[in-house]
From TrEMBL:
PROSITE patterns in alphabetical order: GALACTOKINASE (PS00106), GHMP_KINASES_ATP (PS00627)
Name of this protein: Galactokinase
Gene this chain is encoded by: galK
Residue ranges of every copy of the GHMP kinase C-terminal domain listed in the record: 284-366
Keyword Nucleotide-binding: yes
Pathway note: Carbohydrate metabolism; galactose metabolism
Organism this protein belongs to: Anaeromicropila populeti
Active-site residues (renumbered): D174 (proton acceptor)
């Protein structure tokens, strides 16, 4: 991969000087969905697929970007002296936001650079290609200019950039999972205080299979914001009867005893998901520690059910993938992952049935939905690296 990227870099820019190559992973959240902005737990892991960058310093202040995923756009040029979000910048608003955030935090970027990206994760499908390109860019800058900044600071800075520069209201999970990824481990992260621990992903004779709905982007973003406000409204009301600062602080029993304070039925369902999903995530990590993979799978299925009926963020495409997956013997668990409405579902599947799993779920999906789903058999990988 490294040689291929350097060659491409030379073709796109010019064949001179030394070029360095870096990689940052994508991520998949195994359980703990829509809990990250509710002060709850999440359990994501970094993947061995992600985003690569080949980079070379320049002598001026220009930044020239090229992405092998958006070749039709050619080279897009910006300057370190003008780090502003513009429509014409297209996808480069993500890495530009990172340069902006680094400067905001008081670091000075001494010179421009030419940079070529290539991602082997799908864009806009919930595997967080945006956080992958952000963390990658921040990591490249840190290594290239010897900035004294930790990986956790990188995660925070990238979230800040996506929130403030790109106007995307994301939580910290994606950037954290990517910056802090560790091979064969998932990260049990408490989004309330960013305390975390690593848990071994020992699936024995099973693998993680990601199923992509390939659904075109719809109203997902506005509904995401709506869910956030519904949870905020529910929290405000429940606060009047029990002193908490987030839904993630509530146990199931506390929620049941106090839920009547939430007058709106929809808001009550949203809060119920946030509370139960957080507790489920805690139980799922415990199950994994006890090597009870069957229980882990069952909790994944419960998570999907809650996201379908209480949080209402699944939709026919994700439901079809999960329902069809669960019909197959040897599937330990399956659920939607990411924000929902489209994007991907994640499943744990016994190795010996993976081929027939892909064939059967793929066929049923195509028949019902009318277009193909994609399947990726993934491994749990580490964080950003120089290759
Ligand atoms: P997700 O993070 O779920 O993949 P987003 O919409 O948040 O979806 O981010 C996708 C966007 O991130 C792309 O449309 C593009 O602007 C940017 N991006 C991600 N990976 C790349 C890449 N390899 N090259 C260029 N832009 C990328
Ligand atoms: Mg994203």
């Amino acid at each position: 991969m490294k040689e291929k990227l350097i060659q491409r870099f030379y073709d796109v820019f010019s064949a001179e000087g030394s070029v360095d190559v870096y990689f940052a992973p994508g991520r998949v959240n195994l359980i703990g969905e829509h809990t990250d902005y509710n002060g709850g737990h999440v359990f994501p892991c970094a993947l061995t697929i992600g985003t690569y960058a080949a980079v070379r310093k320049r002598e001026d202040h220009k930044i020239r970007f090229y992405s092998m995923n958006f070749e039709q756009l050619g080279i897009l040029e910006s300057s370190l002296d003008e780090l502003i979000n513009k429509k014409e910048n297209d996808w480069t608003n993500y890495p530009l936001g990172v340069c902006w955030a680094i400067k905001e935090k008081g670091f000075s970027i001494p010179c421009g650079f030419d940079i070529l990206y290539f991602g082997n994760i799908p864009n806009g499908s919930g595997l967080s290609s945006s956080a992958s390109i952000e963390v990658l860019t921040a990591y490249v800058l840190r290594e290239m200019f010897s900035f004294d900044i930790s990986l956790i600071e990188i995660a925070k800075l990238c979230q800040y950039s996506e929130n403030k520069f790109n106007g995307v209201n994301c939580g910290i999970m994606d950037q954290f999972a990517i910056a802090m990824g560790m091979e064969n481990k998932a990260i049990f992260l408490d989004t309330a205080d960013l305390s975390y621990e690593y848990a071994d992903i020992l699936l024995e004779d099973a693998k993680i299979v990601i199923m992509n709905t390939n659904k075109k982007r719809g109203l997902g973003d506005s509904k995401y914001n709506q869910r956030r406000s519904e949870c905020e409204a529910a929290l405000e009301q429940i606060k009047s009867v029990i002193p908490v600062s987030s839904l993630g602080e509530l146990t199931e029993e506390q929620f049941e005893a106090n839920q009547n304070a939430i007058t709106d039925e929809i808001q009550r369902k949203r809060a119920k998901h946030a509370v139960y999903e957080n507790q489920r995530t805690i139980k799922a990590v415990e199950a994994l520690k006890n090597k009870d993979i069957e229980l882990f799978g069952k909790l994944m299925i419960d998570s999907h059910t809650s996201l379908k009926y209480d949080y209402e963020v699944t939709g026919t495409e994700l439901d079809t993938l999960v329902e069809e997956a669960l019909k197959i013997e040897g599937v330990i668990g399956a659920r939607m992952t990411g924000a929902g409405f489209g994007g991907c579902a994640v499943s744990i599947v016994k190795e010996q049935v993976i081929d027939s799993f892909i064939e059967n779920v793929g066929k049923a999906y195509k028949e019902k939905i009318g277009y193909e789903a994609d399947f990726y058999i993934v491994s749990v990988g580490g964080g950003p690296v120089k290759l």
